Amino acid sequence: MLPGHPTARALVCAGAGDSKEPVVTDSDVTDSEKTAEVLRAHAEDAFAGELAALAAQDERPRPERWRLSPWAVATYLLGGELPDGTVITPKYVGPRRLVEVAVTTLATDRALLLLGVPGTAKTWVSEHLAAAISGDSTLLVQGTAGTPEEAVRYGWNYAQLLANGPSRDALVPSPVLRAMADGKIARVEELTRIPADVQDSLITILSEKTLPIPELGGETQAVRGFNLIATANDRDRGVNELSSALRRRFNTVVLPLPATLDEEVEIVARRVGQLGRALDLPELPGGAQEIRRVVTVFRELRDGVTTDGRTKVKTPTGTLSTAEAISVVTNGLALAAHFGDGVLRAGDVATGVLGAVVRDPVADQVVWREYVEGVLRERDGWKDFYRAARELSN
After folding, report:
1. How far apart are CA 245 and CA 206, in angstroms?
2. Which residues have CB under 8 Å from 78's CB, separation 6+?
3. Pairing relation of β-strands 227-232 and 185-189?
4. Which of 36, 137, 155, 171 shows its CA 20 to 30 Å from the CA of 12?
5. Exposure pattern of 27-60 as b/e (b: 16+ CB <10 Å)?
6. Each residue's pLDDT tens digit in the chain (394 positions)?
7. Backbone angles phi, psi at 319, to 5 degrees
8. Comparing C-alpha atoms, which of 124, 129, 125, 180 is closest to residue 152?
9. How would DSSP label each residue in 241-289?
10. Residue 373: Cβ-neighbour burial (10 angstroms; 0-12, 13-18, 19+)
């Protein structure tokens, strides 16, 4: 590590031979200190205590190389209380059966495809499944329109390739190849954003559990414990349909939007609390009320009808997902903490709501104004929210 490097934790002495002052290096920093310093810790680090408690009390059969039994993995995601009183916090709020099917799939030879509209916690569930099963959620391929085949298969260290020719030392394994060799869970995010020809490079991996390396005249075979979780949605632009051959290699679990208003409010409140603590934002009065208001607005515009079922409303072009609601409220907390009076108010979240709703400056603006004047204006107890929304619309 070089002196002056932004991530260095060394106190460099004035003289090269001067050893009177202690030198602190990365090796002296505990895992808990590193976790506290990062903006967003990996799931296996952030919830290491819960995973350790589950492993210590988990006496059920475990598939080979799994850190926990399928039952314990489901408990880790859904939450519960262990016999010794340890409380496992819920990571996902939704139908238990969906989680059980997802976990069971990974214990078979079928890969898992988490499908759903944007904001249904596909990535979140994928990360926590990998953390609970393998203790490592970092074997990740992020799908984009420019994802090359090397990101799924392998690449080459061209300096070594030119110097010594093809060899194992010159090969740069992808996260999928590393997961195959180590018997871990690999993750492919936004599979439908990856070009179709690159998608299909997964077919042999998932069906034969092997990855040919013709340049070396060999192959890498997956060891027990390997499996793959992919996430995908078919709502955004730039989506590439999965071939029928590839889709057959997956067991598909569709993650739904939260079923009720209270369920979505609970999800948003929990994640906002976690993000607020990570960002050192204080817990502000008014938070519960504004969270319920934001979620109510999102659900009504998403569903095309008010919560009482009496008034139909137009729907905007955006998805208005739970993840967007979390972002709106978190931004509102930051506004209230840094530029407000320490109370989360309607004006702190109204700007974020407007930004989430109005994606198309013409069509969505009409939807928003009609909703503000036709619904919010007459709603009891919402006068402050209506005024803030109306000011932004003018």
Report:
1. 11
2. 90, 91, 92, 96, 99
3. parallel
4. 36
5. eeeeeeeeeeeeeebbbbbbbbebbebbbeebee
6. 333 333 333 333 333 344 444 444 555 555 556 566 788 899 999 999 999 999 999 999 999 999 999 999 999 999 999 999 999 999 999 999 999 999 999 999 999 999 998 889 999 999 999 999 999 999 999 999 999 999 999 999 999 999 989 999 999 999 999 999 999 999 999 999 999 999 999 999 999 999 999 999 999 999 999 999 999 986 666 678 889 999 999 999 999 989 999 999 999 999 999 888 888 888 888 799 999 999 999 999 999 999 999 999 999 998 899 999 999 999 999 999 999 988 999 999 999 999 999 999 999 999 999 999 999 999 999 999 999 999 987 7
7. -85, -25
8. 180
9. PPPHHHHTTEEEEEPPPPSSHHHHHHHHHHHHHHHHHHTTPPP-TTHHH
10. middle
| β 227-232/80-81 pair status | unpaired
In order, the DSSP letters of 109-140 are: TSEEEEE-STTSSHHHHHHHHHHHHHS----E
Instruction: Tokens 């992020």: give the residue.
Output: 142
Residue type, 319: T
Q: Which two tokens stand for residue 294?
A: 């934001």
Q: Locate tokens 């904001």: which residue?
A: 119
Structure confidence at residue 35 (pLDDT): 62
Q: Which residue matches tokens 């729907």?
A: 315
Residues contacting residue 69 through CB under 8 Å, at least 6 positions apart: 58, 60, 61, 62
Choose among 157, 120, 112, 136: nearest CA to 42.
136
Beta bridge pairs of residue 114: 231, 253
Tokens of 358: 């109005």
Residue 296 near residue 382 (C-beta atoms within 8 A): no
Measured in degrees and rounded to the nearest 5, phi and psi for residue 192 equal -75, -5
3-state secondary structure of 20: coil
Crossing angle of helices 96-106 and 122-134, in 10° steps, is 50
Bridge partners, residue 227, by sequence: 185
The pLDDT of residue 52 is: 97
How far apart are the C-alpha atoms of 273 and 279, rounded to whole Å? 10
